Amino acid sequence: GLFGNCQGYYGTVEAQGKGTLHLHLLIWLEGHPNPQAMRDAFEKDPTYKNAIFKWLDDVIATSTPGSMDVVTLESDARPSLPKGEPDPRSVMAPQAADFDDVEEFNAASSAFISKLVTCTNWHVHSDTCWKKLKKGEARDDAHCRLGIDGSTRPITMLDPDSGSILYRRLHPRINNYNPTTIHGIQSNMDIKHIGSGEGAKACLYYVTDYITKFSLPVHSGLAALSYALKRNNEKFDGVSWASAETKEKSLLTKSVNAMMARMEISHQQVMSYLVGGGDHYASHTFRNLYWGTLDRYIRTLD
């Protein structure tokens, strides 16, 4: 594969505020050691460490194609496309089959990726960068929660304090991307290696929390539960024959229906289901684990 021998993958599809779909994907590579084992190997074998760093530099880019030196910007503003030039996200990317010479294709592809990266992966601060700021904290580079602070780094290295891998960063504003992937999807992207140090733990927590988050806001969920409780009380008001179990089952059904009715689903999500896309991609098959059944079984072992 593009990054190595893939042992497994799991990705969830999420809709943004405008309804556009995007994917959060985890990939497990064959032979990849756990974070602590990798950290120990770095300390014992410089050759291994340099090989990993070279691989990271190959698969994770932080500048436009062909850049080999640190870029200094006069302005952080994203460059605009020349007047009359189409947005690279809306046109066909160069195809190898259309070129007789490989070098010509590589040159055309690099030029296309350069335009695409500038349009999609050039970071410009917005309210999203500072939405978790505490009162009194400045809205500046240092507090960008996405980590694009304008700093650069000529080579990939280890953080001496945490042991985390610090990527080579030649451009102060371009977010991490993989050239082949961004050429194929023609959209913004991010890519991270979950390696050694505290950064790995933080990244694992962030990704796990993000792909499992519930899409219904808390206030909407509480409003739905309140509505279901009210309707259920009205249904059984003055009814003497209904048992407690019947009322509880009715309340559960009404609660689920009320919450589902308040979930916003874009037409892109609907079409994805209709054409068989679903809401996730996985290399493995999983079985459902019903907590009630498991809990009862465990209790029988006491």
TrEMBL record:
What domain of life? Answer: Eukaryota
Q: What is this protein called?
A: Helitron helicase-like domain-containing protein
